[in-house]
Protein: SAM-dependent methyltransferase
Organism: Furfurilactobacillus curtus
Amino acid sequence: HLSKRLAAVAKRVPDQARLADIGSDHAYLPVFLAKQHRIQWAIAGEVVAGPFENARSEIVSQGLTEQIEARLGDGLAVINPQDQLDTIVIAGMGGTLISDILTRGWQKLSGSERLILQPNVGEAHLRQWLVQHQYRITSEEILKDEGHIYEIIMAVKMAAPVHLTDQQIQFGPQLLAQPNTAFVEKWQHELARRQRVLASLKQAHHVPAEKVTMLTETIASIKEVLAHAR
Ligand code: SAM
């Protein structure tokens, strides 16, 4: 039984994919997909020995050693051209770590893989990485699970440069176009948090003027987006 968050990630994996789940921990995602006959084959990649052992024993106990291979290694180092992957999932980590994994392993990517990324924080940083590396965001999702709000970002490599506005980078191009209640809740929360920071900055001495200006601009941009989302 998957969490609502991982179930939403699973739903984005194309039918009969050849998948790498990087940072797989217990391999719950590939195990779920293999049991449903939704994937051809998968790698469960892990860099830490404990989670790697968890992944391996879960695969063995579910009788899925033909369908899923646990591999120990850093990020995309565990994948090879012979694997003929078409889908890469990196879920449940910060956006900075996800983009670091992609940067360190970019030569392992053929460019034809679909990326399914689920950053816990740092979504804007990840979207910036995608734009800089000529990935187009094909779809996005935002959902609430157990009191946390999560974003899922699907991306594919393009032959030509990709452009997003600053607003699209910050809020997500697809999420901005179709804001739902989770989106509104997230940004109401972010707005309140930044307003608190600004208020305390104004009380403090020797605060750099640029810091106040930047925060004021961010607050204005969140207010503008929220005004259009309701
Ligand atoms: N992907 C699962 C999910 O979304 O529920 C597990 C998320 S868990 C919070 C993050 C996992 O990523 C941990 O098991 C951690 O060991 C692994 N991890 C962190 N950095 C990694 C890297 N560079 N390469 C592979 N795995 C990594």
Summary: Residues 182-229 form one domain. The chain has two domains: 4-164, 182-229. The first strand starts at residue 17 and ends at 22. The chain has a mean pLDDT of 97.
